Amino acid sequence: MPSALTVIRVAVPRPLHSLYDYHVPEGQELPLVGARVRVPFGNSRVVGICVENDVKEGRIETKPILDVIDQEAAIPATLLDLAQWMSQYYHHPLGEVLATILPSAARRGSAFEIKALPIARRWLLKQADFKNPRATRQEALVQWLGTAVTEATDGVPEEAILKAGFTRDVISRLVDLGVLEAAPEIEPAPLQQPLDPTPAQADAIKAVRDSDGFSIFLLEGVTGSGKTEVYLQAMAPALNAGGQILVLVPEIALTPQTLARFEDRFGRTGMIHSGLTDQQRLQTWLRCKSGELTILIGTRSAIFTPFAKLGLIIVDEEHDSSYKQQEGLRYSARDLAAKRAQQEDIPLLLGSATPSLESIFNVQRGRYRHLLLADRAGGASMPSYHIIDLRGQTLHGGLASSLIQTIREHLAASGQVLLYLNRRGYAPTLLCQSCGWQAVCPDCDARLTLHRTPAVMICHHCALRLEVPNHCEACGQGALLPLGQGTQRTEDSLASLFPDVPIHRIDRDTTRTNRQLNAQLQQIHEGQPCIMVGTQMLAKGHHFPSVTLVAVLNADAGLLSPDFRAPERTAQLIVQVAGRAGRAAKPGQVWIQSHQPDNPLLGRLIEDGYAGFAKTELESRSLAGLPPMHPMALLRAEAENQALAQAFLANCKAHLEQVQVAQEGGPEARVKLYGPVPAPMARLANRYRFQLMLIAPSRNTLHRLLQSLGHPRVPAALRWSIDVDPYDAL
Ligand code: ADP
Ligand code: ZN
Ligand code: ZN
């Protein structure tokens, strides 16, 4: 083979740590670094990324590339750097990291063409009594427009009609018949002016605006303190300088309400979340890359969007667990935001009412600058706390009588009530009254949850659905009794306790679609007295100005968990739920039901607030040698064969111990290895799961040791992974 051939190095989307060399056949253009190329791989052809385009010491025998897809870098230099950094930090193959970064349409090789945005057309119904028995779709659309849409004086957006399942063809036929008419264009609403900032807001805004280049700010602001206003005003200088802004929000908080707050101020913004089609996602991605879109709001994966000129990153509710990807490439979007801000030499603004202990620790050691909003904007007061001692009480549908009485009082005073219960379904257990048998999932170490309407047993871990048994599978004769409370059951009890009050249940079962959720929220926002009962969907992000009473129905689950992060999570949850109360003029109350009313965590939280709690909790983490002072990683392994998974981790441990003995330095310089032990969910979907925990004195020691694992070859029946900075560490 003539040596004049140009050889390039390609990362392929496979779980393999090697990069692969190919040559560029004569007459074929040379791909840029970061461009997508189609290459033969094994028996197939794959889309890879060119990571080096001038390999000097390539192998003699290389295959030719098939095709250069991009004339530009699909992955710009900064993103490629980020990918390389991630590959090292998370010990994950570069090809898979790059595949994660690319939108799936791009991964498949779609051309990068920005399509003109569709015109936002709206249609008016002219003849509501239109009938045509021979054209049922036309009739159906007329009927849909007449009922589904009430006060649509501006017309119904074409997008909504298409979404409801009607075609453009049906629309245009009705237009021809004069039944539909295009609505006149609406003038865009004038953009909203900035609010007059409070002194604390003004200080925070100024700090971010004055920052030059890379720095990280932690904006700690109690719920309702006006963090969003700080975000909006901190964005101005970057926007004026022609820069782009990336705003990350938790999965659950990306509601039309959130989006509207940015759009009302700045006009069009882009959005990236899991509900988009592949093409929509790619289009938004390309508009950010070209610089056309100036503001992007997105969930976790939006951190991988390329920008022509990024000027500021904002991470709202930075403590939220949804920023951590829990499978595959286990990255933290918040931590990557810090890395990216550093690369791009721009500020990063992290905001939360309940910052993660990681971020508070970074403030303590001078890495982040602390900005504080201690009071609610607009003068609303903070809620007051009450603990209900559940010991020895008879509950009605999971509610203590004193709580029921309080609910009555708040409703009578025209308040709304919010009840938090982190269990969907009817009852978490179905129990045989005579022998104690419980309905369990055949594939997991878990009980099945009883659901009603429709009646079904569901495993909340592997999603298996089974019929509700009508007799005990052990003794065959005992009566089966639902035990414990889920949101459905609480809803039922509330309906009989408060027959005249609207009850809104908000959990994943009632809000499968955004539309369902929005319909519920709209009723709530009308402000009439009502009771909401729901899971964490209710606890985050939403504004409920008329809520005066919030109750946490069962605080014990969090208080009793042995996970070292459980106190932090429980405190965050209580403060966040409490933050829904009394946001407007009416003061709020927070009631917490617990069998452990003297639990020191509850006491500290109520007396010292979240900041005081966090300080004490950080001290105990430090004493216990835990994160954030001591970095952690988990090796996980799972297989249908229990011994296989366990033996793999035992071998890893033996290897790591050997490596450490061979190294210099005393025991305190070594990484501590705990396990292997069965995972908390020891069997999931019929696979046994084990884990080995590593806790290191420093990041470098941790990474060096993980590096020494190399890339062990394992049987196909075994799955294993490395989780650096695990969120669920138990
Ligand atoms: P957070 O995100 O900190 O929970 P928000 O940004 O949602 O708080 O603000 C809470 C409420 O206070 C909102 O209704 C907002 O419009 C209002 N608000 C924020 N800043 C001001 C201000 N400077 N003056 C008056 N109202 C404000
Ligand atoms: Zn299961
Ligand atoms: Zn039985």
Describe it:
This protein is an alpha/beta fold and 730 residues long. Strands 12-13-11-14-15-10-16 form a 7-stranded parallel sheet, sandwiched between helices. Strands 5-2-1-4-3-6 form a 6-stranded mixed sheet. 40% of the residues are buried. The model has no long low-confidence stretch (mean pLDDT 90). It binds adenosine-5'-diphosphate (ADP) and zinc ion (2 copies). One zinc ion is lined by residues 441, 443-444, 446, 459, 461-462, 464.
Q: Which structural class do you get from the secondary structure elements?
A: alpha/beta
**Could you tell me how far the N terminus lies from the C terminus, measured between alpha carbons in angstroms?**
55 Å
Radius of gyration: 28 Å
- Record the strand order, biggest sheet: 12-13-11-14-15-10-16
User: What amount of the residues lies in strands?
Assistant: 15-25%
Oligomer: single chain
> How many helix segments?
22
Distinct small molecules: adenosine-5'-diphosphate, zinc ion
What about the largest sheet?
A: 7 strands, parallel
Low-confidence stretches: none
Mean pLDDT level: 90
Shape field: globular
Residue share in helix: 25-40%
Beta strand count: 31
Name the descriptors.
binds adenosine-5'-diphosphate; alpha/beta; six-stranded mixed beta sheet; 730 residues; binds zinc ion
Helix and strand layout, with pairings?
Elements (H helix, E strand, L loop, with lengths): L5 E6 L8 E5 L11 E6 L2 E9 L10 E2 L2 E2 L8 H13 L4 H8 L2 H4 L14 E4 L10 H12 L8 E2 H6 L4 H9 L3 E3 L16 H12 L4 E7 L5 H8 L1 H5 L3 E5 L7 H11 L3 E3 L5 H13 L4 E4 L11 E7 L16 H12 L2 E6 L4 H8 L4 E5 L10 E6 L11 H12 L3 E5 L8 E4 L16 E3 L4 E3 L6 E2 L13 E4 L3 H11 L5 E4 L7 H12 L5 E4 L1 H4 L7 E6 L3 H5 L5 H13 L10 E6 L5 H25 L7 E8 L2 H21 L9 E13 L2 E9 L3 H9 L11 E6 L6
Parallel strand pairs: 2-5, 10-15, 10-16, 11-13, 11-14, 12-13, 14-15, 17-27, 18-25, 18-26, 24-25, 26-27
Antiparallel strand pairs: 1-2, 1-4, 3-4, 3-6, 7-8, 7-9, 19-23, 20-21, 21-22, 28-30, 28-31, 29-30
Helix pairs in contact: 1-2, 7-8, 19-20
